[in-house]
Task: inverse folding
């Protein structure tokens, strides 16, 4: 595989994404000036559904992240998988995901939002399960799909409720919903959707498991974009649903718990990618918490941290991919002293980790000051945020120092920086984190300010800056670094302690496992009860249902009985055939041998065919006759396999079902004879068969011309049935 | 089943039945017959070979794999549908180029093509299932 030539088109998706990014950049001035470009195409006009899009500050910032980081990731993926035969499918799925994500963050119509939301779920399922030959990847993908799709259903219900309550299907036209009676239900549904998507406790476990995905996928979905869709939803709906006791009560505790779980368990990991996954949980929890607090300062902090986090986390994920490619492992216990061999990687990781640790002059520092300023009112929250941030400092130290310092170690005997395609993205992302920190007004004017305006429904007050004077936030920052350093110095002991404690702690994932086990149990019970695998029981159910329907129609509808005079008109031949059929039925019922019974059944069918011939339905008679012949051949073949010992048993229930259906069908046919036939159809076909369809055989003309579409469906079913039957029989042979 | 009479009779009967099935199919347009019953009739011919000389012989006689025949049949029916769909904008609309060009009433056009599709689908599906069933039973023995 390694000598395969990298295809030349592999950078096209990245170029397309970069062009989209440029397009969004060109819209920045309009949005900064307070405008919101919209686009609305009619979709289902009868239901008032439009494909409506609207770019406000929040949507534009997300669109820039999705397309900008998307371009870098697609470039990176094109190099990462450049000789893999799956490159095409990866780039295609990643691009599809990017479009879906772009739809989510720009949609203004509720249904449009839902459709794109579900599209991100499905594409991310494909991406997490990209290594679909590995069982673990498939299981992780399924788990991510089950949880996020369940959240998607909650979102659908929530969006419909919102649309009906507000009387508008535009996000921009929802207005304040906090006082409506449906509010608690709406908020509950939206929160479930957002928590499932953004991996908030108690749904958080799917995110670390989703690290089964290839590195570029994790960098894109699980840091910068998809997992932020839940945060986006909460931010988007904050003006409509936010700032109530219920909002605070749901978002703040869940966010805080997720933040602390993520920060603590990040320490436990030795796989750098897994560690990043857990720190992502920390970041998502922090954003949820800040949106839950909901004050203007908290919203500024939330959107600021969102930007910081997207930049450094995507950069770090990609850098871990560089370490893995260059040194042969992403487990920091296998790595050491790579700084000299991998200078570019070292610089990138150092820059991104410094932003993560919130060191000045990085944008991360600015964001951390904002976070502290926003949570100062509540001692418990302040404490939680300080602890979580200190743990982040320790993790940043672990990523930036362990692989690059210490004694030389690496599985690859000659470690080195990977090719330029793998370097560009991480470098750009890391440098942006530094650049925005040095020039915070850029981030403020273009991204953070407009985002804040959309979420808080008011312009940003005050300015972002590296220096806010000697205040409590700065003191807390210093305390965070000190605490983080302390944790870092005791890292190995803490890690081993956590590892030892892990088996004794309750698993949050347990509820998911129990739920899935229950679901499979119910499915198995239903299958066992209904799918017996015995043809007789299927036939019994089918015939019983049919009998109930026939008798139901007979007993509830008006019936006109045929006159007995018609019976007297029967000829000798009619009676003779009836006698043959009745005699055959008697043989079927009395026979002790299957073969005799099958042959006698053939006699019944042939008798019916004779009746068709007598009354002019030659086509039907021919078909009936050949079907009878083939049925005897088939049944003869199948019956040979059945046990021959002993008599055929008599089963009362089967007899009852057979009698009910048989008598019901007879009565129904008699009732039909007594009803005058509406000749509209037969007259039409008689009149038009030759002039319109150039055929004199009306039956055949109906089948292949007038009702050709039905026949097409029927022969398709015949082919499908044959394929299925042959597959089952072949499988049985093996 | 090793019956000399059946084997000998098969050699005579099978070509006759297959030819007859085609006649039934072709006359179906104006007289009793048609693709469905024609296909069934042809299938009985191959069922006869399978009974007399085994499925291997029947498969050889059929020349194509049963499911390929069924698939070609479905393709014929679809092609017939698209013929009318593309030429007249109505899927499955009957097309009679020969009739329009010369006024001849020979059954040639999209509808007989559709009926041929039915014939092949029935032949392929019935023989396919029959052979598979036969093979499965033989493997068991």
Result:
């Amino acid at each position: 595989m390694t000598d395969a030539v990298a295809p030349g088109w592999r950078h096209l998706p990245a170029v397309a994404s970069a062009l989209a990014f440029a397009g969004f950049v060109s819209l920045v001035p309009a949005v900064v000036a307070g405008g919101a470009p919209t686009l609305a195409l009619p979709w289902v006009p009868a239901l008032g559904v439009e494909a409506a899009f609207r770019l406000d500050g929040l949507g534009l910032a997300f669109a820039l992240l999705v397309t900008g980081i998307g371009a870098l990731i697609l470039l990176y993926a094109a190099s990462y998988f450049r000789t893999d035969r799956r490159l095409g499918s990866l780039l295609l799925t990643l691009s599809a995901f990017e479009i879906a994500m772009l739809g989510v963050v720009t949609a203004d119509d509720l249904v449009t939002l839902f459709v794109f939301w579900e599209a991100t779920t499905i594409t991310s399922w494909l991406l997490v399960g990209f290594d679909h030959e590995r069982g673990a990847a498939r299981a992780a993908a399924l788990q991510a799909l089950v949880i996020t799709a369940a959240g998607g259903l909650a979102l659908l219900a929530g969006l419909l409720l919102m649309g009906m309550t507000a009387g508008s299907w535009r996000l921009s036209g929802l207005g304040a919903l906090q006082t409506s009676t449906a509010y608690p239900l709406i908020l509950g549904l939206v929160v479930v959707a957002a928590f499932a998507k953004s991996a908030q406790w108690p749904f958080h476990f799917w995110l670390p498991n989703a690290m089964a995905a290839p590195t570029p996928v994790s960098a894109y979905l699980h840091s910068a974009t998809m997992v932020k869709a839940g945060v986006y939803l909460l931010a988007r709906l904050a003006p409509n649903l936010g700032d109530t006791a219920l909002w605070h009560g749901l978002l703040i505790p869940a966010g805080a718990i997720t933040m602390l779980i993520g920060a603590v368990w990040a320490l436990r990991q030795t796989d750098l990618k897994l560690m990043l996954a857990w720190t992502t949980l920390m970041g998502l929890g922090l954003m949820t918490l800040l949106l839950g607090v909901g004050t203007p300062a908290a919203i500024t902090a939330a959107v600021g941290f969102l930007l910081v986090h997207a930049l450094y986390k995507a950069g770090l994920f990609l850098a871990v991919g560089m370490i893995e490619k260059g040194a042969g492992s992403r487990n920091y216990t296998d790595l050491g002293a790579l700084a000299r061999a991998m200078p570019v990687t070292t610089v990138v990781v150092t820059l991104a980790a410094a932003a993560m640790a919130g060191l000045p002059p990085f944008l991360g520092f600015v964001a951390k000051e904002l976070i502290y300023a926003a949570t100062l009112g509540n001692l418990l929250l302040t404490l939680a945020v300080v602890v979580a941030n200190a743990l982040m400092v320790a993790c940043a130290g672990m990523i930036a120092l362990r692989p690059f310092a210490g004694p030389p170690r690496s599985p690859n005997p000659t470690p080195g920086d990977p090719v330029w395609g793998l370097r560009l993205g991480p470098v750009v992302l890391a440098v942006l984190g530094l650049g925005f920190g040095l020039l915070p007004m850029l981030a403020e004017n273009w991204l953070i300010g407009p985002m804040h305006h959309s979420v808080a429904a008011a312009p940003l007050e005050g300015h972002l800056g590296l220096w806010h004077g000697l205040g409590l936030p700065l003191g807390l920052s210093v305390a965070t670094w000190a605490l983080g350093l302390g944790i870092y110095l005791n890292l190995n002991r803490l890690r081993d302690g956590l590892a030892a404690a892990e088996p004794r702690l309750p698993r949050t994932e347990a509820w998911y496992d129990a739920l899935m086990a229950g679901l499979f149990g119910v499915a198995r019970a239903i299958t066992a009860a209904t799918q017996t695998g015995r043809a007789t029981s299927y036939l019994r159910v089918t015939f019983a249902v049919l009998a109930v329907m026939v008798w139901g129609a007979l007993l509830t509808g008006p019936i006109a009985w045929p006159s007995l005079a018609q019976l007297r008109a029967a000829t000798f031949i009619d009676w003779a055939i009836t006698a043959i059929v009745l005699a055959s039925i008697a043989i079927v019922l009395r026979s002790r041998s299957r073969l005799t019974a099958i042959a006698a059944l053939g006699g019944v069918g042939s008798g019916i065919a004779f009746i068709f011939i007598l009354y002019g339905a030659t086509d039907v008679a021919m078909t009936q006759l050949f079907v009878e012949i083939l049925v005897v051949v088939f049944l003869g073949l199948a019956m040979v396999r059945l046990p021959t010992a002993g008599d055929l048993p008599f089963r009362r229930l089967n007899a009852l079902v057979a009698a009910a259906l048989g008598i019901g069908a007879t009565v129904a046919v008699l009732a039909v004879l007594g009803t005058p036939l509406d000749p509209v159809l037969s007259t039409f076909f008689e009149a038009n068969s030759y002039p319109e369809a150039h055929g004199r055989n009306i039956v055949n003309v109906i089948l292949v011309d007038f009702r050709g579409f039905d026949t097409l469906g029927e022969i398709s079913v015949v082919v499908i049935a044959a394929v299925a039957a042959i597959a089952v029989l072949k499988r049985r042979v093996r | 089943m090793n019956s000399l009479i059946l084997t000998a009779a098969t050699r005579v009967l099978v070509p006759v039945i297959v030819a007859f099935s085609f006649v039934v199919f072709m006359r179906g347009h104006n007289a009793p017959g048609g693709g469905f019953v024609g296909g069934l009739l042809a299938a009985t011919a191959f069922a006869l070979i399978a009974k007399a000389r085994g499925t291997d012989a029947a498969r050889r006689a059929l020349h194509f794999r049963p499911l390929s025949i069924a698939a070609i049949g479905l393709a014929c029916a679809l092609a017939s549908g698209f013929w009318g769909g593309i030429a007249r904008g109505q899927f499955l609309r009957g097309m009679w180029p020969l009739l329009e060009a010369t006024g001849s009433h020979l059954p040639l056009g999209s509808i007989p093509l559709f009926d041929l599709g039915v014939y092949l689908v029935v032949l392929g599906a019935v023989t396919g299932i029959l052979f598979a069933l036969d093979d499965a039973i033989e493997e068991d023995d």
Remarks:
- The CA atoms of residues 613 and 685 of chain A lie 21 Å apart.
